[in-house]
Amino acid sequence: xxxxxxxxxSIVAHIDHGKSTLADRLIQSTGTVADRDMKxxxxxxxxxxxxxxxxxxxxxxxxxxxxxxxxxxxxxLIDTPGHVDFAYEVSRSMRAVEGSLLVVDATQGVEAxxxxxxxxxxxAGHEIVPVLNKIDLPAAEPDRVKAQIEDVIGIDAADAIPxxxxxxxxxPDVLEAIVTRLPAPKGDRDAPLKAMLVDSWYDAYxxxxxxxxxxxxxxxKGDQIKMMQTGATHRIDNLAxxxxxxRDIAEMGPGEIGVFTGSIKQVRDTRVGDTITHERKxxxxxxxxxxxxxxxxxxxxxxxxxxxxxxxxxxIEKLALNDASFSYEMETSAALGFGFRxxxxxxxxxxxxxxxxxxxxxxxxxxxxPSVVFRLHMRDGEVRELHNPADxxxxxxxxxxxxxxxxxxxxxPDEYLGDVLKLCQDRRGIQMDLTYAGxxxxxxxxLPLAEVVFDFYDRLKSVTKGYAxxxxxxxxxxxxxxxxxxxxxxxxxxxxxSIMVHxxxxxxxxxxxxxxxxxxxxxxxxxxxxxxAIGSRVIARETLSAMRKDVTAKCYGGDATRKKKLLEKQKxxxxxxxxxxxVEIPQTAFxxxxxxx
Length: 597
Ligand code: GDP
Ligand code: MG
Prior knowledge:
The chain is α+β, with helices and mostly antiparallel strands.
């Protein structure tokens, strides 16, 4: 295809502003997918994405569009994830295209993720076409939102396109704008092959599928290629474009986006951002490489039933094949037995993986408290990363501890601002900035990531009735007075419940945790002390009194079905219990105890 007839673009938006619906409409209105094959949210392929309405993996589709100028253009849409955890995936797919549609819900206006995503598009040098969506709704205020885009983002919105992705209104204007307002890609067909590895995933039938954007040269089926960073060489077995179904093609030239397969064993063998060239006639310089995504949140995953360890390992290995940003290593916990310490890009990523393990692999899991990576500066000068509070070395060996801080941007209607400030303040936040855009406040906080990973989103949503939006970037590591707090149940430390906490907040956290555990642990035949401690110093304590009667005692001689039901319920409950010395702790206690209300 001639370069002048190609347009490559992505759609950036805050979650729920209509990115997927618009993508569907573009695909449908150009007849790329026959109406009978059209299902809502074509590009969101995983079940969990559909259910939650989020897009996790970047995906792509090639659309043929006959424009008003009489020419047929090839439009390549790369769908990018809309969530903060996947900012890295967004940034890399952005580098494969030249322009972006900026979708803003005309009833809501600019939100935190609108800003984060559009800034990434601007960083990638994109031409940007603003699109005002949902104008079918009576609450839509396109003029106000236009002004807001100009004020807050600082781009020209005079020619923003009003649309309804739902009804299809304005879609022809969007297609024309893609052709007339976004630039064609550049590239030299006669130069040595230079292509960017944009993404890769595992397909049960095809093996590893690699998505590429050709910069220069031509790639053909049967070619012997080389990945410049890893040095690996492969034969191109198959070359295809995504429509969104795979359609084989013989060759791809500059500006084109497509996929290839070729005897690659696992996704881990491909490095996103790598440069692909011909083995025999390579290009001289590689594309600027990308940093690999670093896991920032760690937690332990343990099977409730110890017999599930092998199935859990198999499932984790399978998921990891398809997700290079998910890391894992075996972990042994005195309390929970054998399991895995897993690293994630963020909390949503954690939730997605845990959900898939439970649903797709039918595993019952105990998830320990999410923890960030602390940096331990040892007295002997060594710097260690701490992924698990249970591994905290003797304090006398540690000189000081650093923790990751984030720059958080929160946008919220004025009336909830007070509650948001209080929440951030309570989480050791430092206010950096506070500005207004209409009736919405935009507040920027410097916060410890550790205080955000657990239930910050949930709290933010609940104090603002869902009206706040949130985005963050990791800013730096900084020293603070951090200590390890242990929890002892019946005088035995429960390693899975130990956390790293700021010294000034330890008493408070400790008290909350032991009080909660007192409610969460069922009574036993004996008294159970529950304590929080820093080193050997107890900072909070509760005692769970002994149970007086057998649970089923009152049923004896009574209604037989009721008794049976109760026993069944107990049996089901048992499955979710773990034994700690003489004490049984329900698995929900691990998460519940760590919530900060
Ligand atoms: P995404 O998170 O940006 O991908 O947003 P979706 O495309 O999933 O849309 C979020 C919600 O808004 C869905 O319930 C859509 O049906 C709805 N929606 C999207 N576009 C429109 C529109 O133009 N008008 C109306 N009324 N609803 C829309
Ligand atoms: Mg979506």
